[in-house]
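User: Structure please.
Assistant: Input sequence and predicted structure:
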Amino acid sequence: MSSINILLADDSPIFVAALTGILEADGDMKVAWVAENGIQAHEMTANHSPDLVVMDVHMPEMGGLEAIEEIMATTPTPILVLTSDPRAETSDFIFDAIERGALELIRKPAEFDPQAADAKMIRNKARLLSGVAVVRRAKKEARLRAKPAWSVGAPQGAEGDAEARAGATGRLSRVIGVVSSTGGPAALAGLLEFIPSGFEAPFVVVQHLSPGFSETFASWLDSVSALSASVAQQGARLKAGHVYVAPDGHHLEVDETGALLLIPAEAGTTHVPSGTRLLESIARSYGRRSIGVVLTGMGNDGAVGMQRIKERGGVTMVQSPDTCVVASMPQAAISLGCVDAHYPTDDLANAVIAAVRGCVGK
């Protein structure tokens, strides 16, 4: 079996040596090329066609963000980004790498023991991403993060009205659960950026992330959407027009009163947080008013939860598998026969809006 050939881009010789030892520890991957800056990373990718590029975002001459954009516009290649401490960076900076075409973000290992848990996680992630088929992405200027003035749906300033309508009865019109993994941040942003301000329902999100990224991820979603996004807090009540992101190390559920519940994960749990647990709780608590959405990702998380929503008369939809970075999660839900429809990312927002406003799933 041939090795997975990796291009490693980082300007620290010490880190390059340490990460090479981590990546090559199992014998099925090889750091075949090393770039010291973004210009070299772009040129080497074009000349050698590596199976995977692993890069830092802070490099001289041309940084990682610019290098990602150049690579994805000319020689599309799976890219894994490493960062020292996601909480020390701005969310705009970190997740701009995803918007420019990187597949995933991982925190740099805290120790360089190849058998440590975070080292094994990096190798597993590298194996997965090296097999992902990526497409060319046109270059574009990094867009400003100011929230746009939405003209679709509810008028500006209607968020309070939406919450008041829900609060008058103590019941939200719908509750939307979204589950995603590999490729999910970009897909989720693509969904939320077309949801209007003052929207009548909340979004509760399970996105599989490396530890330490949930706060910056929520802040990034807040900046690219007209909705208010934040990390879910224990006991907080759902509000229309808000997005709640599952925190690190906890499962996220919703009870029949609209309260968010954080459940510490047990050791050895496969998916933390679990998309299926979230969707099952929404199905139990909201029945026909449940909407389940599964986006791109590896594995089958969310599929059984979608089945529960379908059984309770709710609405279920997935991202079209042919538009996914990794199609396993939506395919798993489709295989259970519990998906009402699938949509490309450009159409998902309209489908969610229609479901909330009663055009489907009454």
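Residues 4-130 form a domain with the Rossmann fold fold (CATH 3.40.50.2300).
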